[in-house]
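Project outcomes to date are best conveyed with an example. Our students and postdoctoral researchers have been running inverse folding experiments weekly, and each run begins with a structure described purely in tokens. The record below, which covers 286 residues, was selected by the lab manager from last quarter's runs and is presented without edits.
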């Protein structure tokens, strides 16, 4: 069965899904996106992703082409049309396609935002990474300053990930003014003496939907949480490290810039948080 994609109101086979070369998402990365995971054909934390999407659009003065109820229905329809059981839904809203390339934004009354969704299969619950953990490098954070808005400007994170791959690692932790901001596509954490430490929210990191849930579950499980910046040196001395994202859940980090973290195998707190997250999110899936 060919993949079915949603483009501006229509469900079409992927090969027929087209957007204009004048689309500002294509020309200027003038677009926001969300990735939401699906387990057992159900959506994980739709409300969290829909709320962040609305915030991203409002920060950039974009007018949503759909209501959030319509968006939920589109998510359900695309799951069904692709027989998606486990994996994710990628959603992108762009500022549309005016006739001319211009730095100034078009009038939203004349040029409506465009919307595209597609699905992908990915094993989420049983993940090899969970048993093995990942290795990361550190690299300067050279992204723009509004990382709290989930835009499609992903060239620097993509560049950073390639630097990690060249060094035999799976990801990079980004460092600004001596402190870790986050991973290329995830939020970063360390654990020291039972306390979970992660950077506080601000414009310098994406407000991870998984991060919010993980911290909530950690507090409910009586774990200690500190929201503050940490350095690579502190991370290398930590007992555990891990990252969180919608399709990665919580993934242990076992090496940072060549230094083994803790015992060099996924830590107990990271594992426990992943278990709780998986269980609770499956229960709440819609
Ligand atoms: N930080 C960045 C830069 C990301 O790109 C992502 C996800 O794509 C995250 C954090 C994790 O966010 P979420 O948990 O909402 O997937």
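After processing, the design step wrote out the following sequence:
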């Amino acid at each position: 069965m060919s993949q079915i994609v949603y483009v501006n109101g229509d469900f079409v086979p992927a090969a027929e899904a087209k957007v204009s070369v004048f689309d500002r998402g294509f020309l200027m990365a003038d677009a926001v996106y969300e990735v939401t995971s699906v387990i057992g054909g159900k959506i994980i934390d739709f409300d969290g992703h829909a709320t962040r999407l609305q915030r991203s659009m409002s920060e950039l003065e974009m007018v949503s082409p759909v209501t959030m109820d319509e968006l939920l229905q589109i998510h359900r329809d695309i799951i069904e049309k692709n027989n998606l059981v486990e994996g994710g839904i990628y959603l992108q809203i762009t500022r549309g396609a005016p006739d001319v390339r211009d730095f100034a934004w078009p009038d939203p009354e004349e040029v409506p935002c465009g919307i595209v969704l597609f699905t992908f299969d990915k094993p989420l619950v049983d993940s090899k990474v969970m048993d093995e953990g990942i290795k990361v490098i550190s690299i300067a954070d050279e992204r723009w300053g509004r990382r709290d808005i989930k835009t499609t400007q992903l060239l620097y994170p993509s560049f950073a990930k390639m630097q990690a791959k060249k060094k035999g690692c799976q990801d990079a932790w980004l460092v600004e003014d001596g402190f870790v901001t986050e991973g290329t596509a995830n939020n970063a954490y360390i654990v020291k003496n039972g306390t979970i430490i992660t950077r506080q929210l601000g414009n310098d990191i994406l407000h991870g939907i998984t991060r919010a849930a993980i911290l909530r579950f950690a507090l409910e499980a009586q774990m200690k949480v500190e929201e503050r910046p940490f350095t690579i040196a502190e991370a290398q001395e930590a007992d555990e490290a891990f990252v969180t994202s919608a399709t990665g859940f919580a993934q242990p980090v076992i090496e940072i810039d060549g230094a083994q973290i803790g015992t060099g195998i996924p830590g107990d707190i990271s594992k426990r948080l992943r278990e709780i997250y998986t269980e609770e999110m499956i229960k709440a899936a819609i």
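The mean pLDDT is 96. The first helix runs from residue 24 to 28. The training component of this project remains on track.
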